[in-house]
UniProtKB/TrEMBL annotation:
Cofactor(s) required for function per UniProt: Zn(2+)
This protein's name: 3-keto-5-aminohexanoate cleavage protein
Annotated coiled-coil segments of the chain: 274-301
Pfam family, one: BKACE
Alphabetic keyword roster: Coiled coil, Metal-binding, Transferase, Zinc
InterPro entries associated with the record: Aldolase_TIM, BKACE
Length: 302
């Protein structure tokens, strides 16, 4: 079976420092977590920045530039900068850092949607009083805007002009059809790397049947011209990505997607999640792809 790409999404923009003391926030913490993840076996590092003063998601290129060169210098992993940023940022804000840094990969979110986490029953109190309220007013009622023109703009600015390849974030079956639309228009070419996203409230639910359905439709639309990976929010992370590995897909872990390592236990860092999924996939007979393998498989500029 094909080698398996482990992506690690190091910090994201959803969780808050109040939810885990291990969430990386400063440039040093993001660097150390990224390097630890790469050493544990992560092939791709999916990166967001935060304001070190308060831990809020940041679109400031200076915050990205405080860790990107260090990470690049200390490991060979493929660097993937988010163009999703956070749902409260404008498109221009979201694109400022990737335009400047010109990474090998960027994320590209394939539709406008509601965006929230499922408030776990045991976390409802935390959600109401401790979750983003001091951070992002109304963060449990956000619209994540990714219109067709937004997507086209990202494809042109980062893909055509700067040579980035994309992690196409598909939160629903409809997003696969949107991606096909861009393939048909010739704006997306070559081998696609599609991230099936499960468990965001507003996207497809974290049921195993949905993974087989997403794969079925992607097979129909893209044939051999795509590879899929899976990410799932919170407690669905490990079960659904394990299913992806069994189905021949790739996997994404990281504290962006889940703060936990097992039920009720916070992950102490990103590397712990990478090491766990590496153990699982190797037990299943898959070999982990190196960064060089991924560059070949996904036709990256290197
Ligand atoms: N936060 C994930 C559900 C992005 O950065 O572009 C999806 C994501 C989006 O990683
Ligand atoms: Zn992200």
């Amino acid at each position: 079976m094909t080698k398996i790409i482990i992506t690690c999404a190091v910090t994201g923009s959803i969780h808050t420092p109040s939810m885990s003391p291990h969430l990386p926030v400063t440039a040093q913490e993001i660097t150390d977590n990224a390097i630890g993840a790469a050493e544990a076996g992560a092939t791709i590092l999916h990166l967001h920045a935060r304001d070190p003063e308060n831990g809020r998601p940041s679109a400031d290129p200076a915050h990205f530039m405080a860790f990107l060169p260090q990470i690049k210098q200390r490991c060979d992993a493929v660097l993937n900068i988010s163009t999703g940023g956070s749902a409260t940022m404008t498109l221009d804000q979201r694109l400022a850092a990737p335009k400047l840094a010109e990474p090998e990969m960027c994320s590209l979110n394939m539709g406008t949607m509601n965006f929230a986490l499922y408030p776990a029953a045991e976390r409802v109190t935390e959600w109401k009083y401790d979750w983003e309220k001091p951070f992002l007013e109304g963060s449990d009622d956000l619209v994540f805007k990714n219109t067709p023109r937004d997507m086209e703009h990202i494809l042109l600015e980062l893909g055509e002009k700067r040579g980035a390849r994309f992690e196409f974030e598909c939160y629903d079956v409809s997003h696969l059809y949107m991606l096909k639309h861009f393939v048909d228009r010739g704006l997306v070419r070559g081998k696609l790397f599609i991230q099936f996203v499960f468990g965001v409230l507003g996207g497809i639910g974290p049921d195993p049947e949905n993974l087989t359905h997403m794969k079925l439709i992607a097979d129909k639309l893209f044939g051999d011209e795509y590879a899929f990976s899976v990410l799932a929010a919170g407690r669905h992370q490990m079960p659904l990505i394990t299913m992806s590995a069994i189905l021949g897909g790739h996997v994404r872990v990281g504290l962006e997607d889940s703060l936990m390592i097992s039920r009720g236990v916070l992950a102490r860092d990103n590397a712990e999640q990478v090491a766990k999924i590496r153990r699982i996939v190797e037990e299943l007979g898959r070999n982990v792809a190196s960064a060089e393998d991924a560059r070949q498989m996904l036709d990256l500029k290197g």
